[in-house]
Design a protein that fits this description.
This protein is α/β, with parallel strands linked by helices. Helices cover 52% and strands 12% of the residues. Strand 1, helix 1 and strand 2 form a beta-alpha-beta unit. The longest helix has 16 residues. The radius of gyration is 18 Å and the shape is globular. It starts with 15 loop residues before the first strand and ends with a helix.
Length: 240
């Protein structure tokens, strides 16, 4: 997303436009109240199922879509795939009930920029929306390490042709990574391990603004939307 950044708060000056997709009216109402009461965030629409979410995302082009998984007509994973696969700038945050479930892995593949537990505190919801709108990726604190560990384990399960596929993916990944400068590769290695811009800056003795610039260039060179895609790319290819 290329919204202008306000120097005081770091969030888009034009406000963050959010679409809420959940088949439970009470959940939609609660999220709408939390988000609508916060400065700089506007709820522009609500969807009760995946088909409606895809249609509204296309019509409204929100910055963020809060997407439930289990919905009628079209589930949240397919809706996420439809939304992130089109040319719009909308980013999706998956709403999940459990810390770790099968939907989380599907969400990674579908192009979600983060995961948020439905029982998260209001402050965590707001922080997640703002972080993803600013171009970062968000995984709920209780989910992150376990999700990535189990995602990596799933990719190691042997099956017919798995070794050949992994070798091909790794070769392709290494070819793409050659486009990065030495410094960009250092930043890439740090970000796919889950480090924040501040942590990368401290580790590499850089300013946060320089790290942010590097991250933007890395994602552009690799053709990725955000950090979640970078993590998926790294795990699938065996780079980490």
């Amino acid at each position: 997303m290329d919204s202008p950044i306000d120097s005081s708060g770091g969030w888009p000056m034009t406000g963050i436009r959010v679409l809420i997709a959940d088949d439970q009216a009470l959940i939609r109402t609660g999220l709408s109240m939390v988000l609508g009461a916060s400065d700089g965030i506007e709820v522009v629409g609500e969807a009760a199922d995946g088909i409606e979410a895809v249609a509204l995302a296309a019509a409204l082009n929100p910055d963020i879509v809060l997407m439930d998984v289990q919905m009628p007509r079209m589930d949240g994973l397919e809706a996420t795939r439809e939304i992130t696969g089109h040319s719009g700038s909308s980013r999706v945050i998956i709403l999940t009930t459990f810390d770790i479930d099968a939907y989380a892995f599907g969400g990674l593949e579908a192009g979600a920029s983060g995961f948020l537990l439905k029982d998260s505190e209001s402050a965590d919801i707001l922080a997640a929306v703002r972080a993803v709108a600013a171009g970062d990726a968000v995984l709920a604190p209780r989910v992150t390490s376990e999700l990535l560990r189990r995602y990596g384990e799933l990719k190691q399960v042997p099956d017919a042709g798995a070794e050949a596929r992994r070798a091909a993916e790794r070769l392709s990944a290494l070819e793409r990574l050659r486009a990065l400068t030495d410094r960009e590769r250092q930043v890439f290695d740090a970000l796919v391990l889950g480090l924040s811009n501040a942590e990368i800056a401290q580790q590499l003795w850089l300013s946060e603004s320089t790290v942010k610039t590097h991250v933007g260039r890395i994602l552009q060179k690799l053709g990725m939307r955000d950090r979640v895609q970078a993590v998926v790319f790294a795990f699938r290819s065996g780079v980490i």
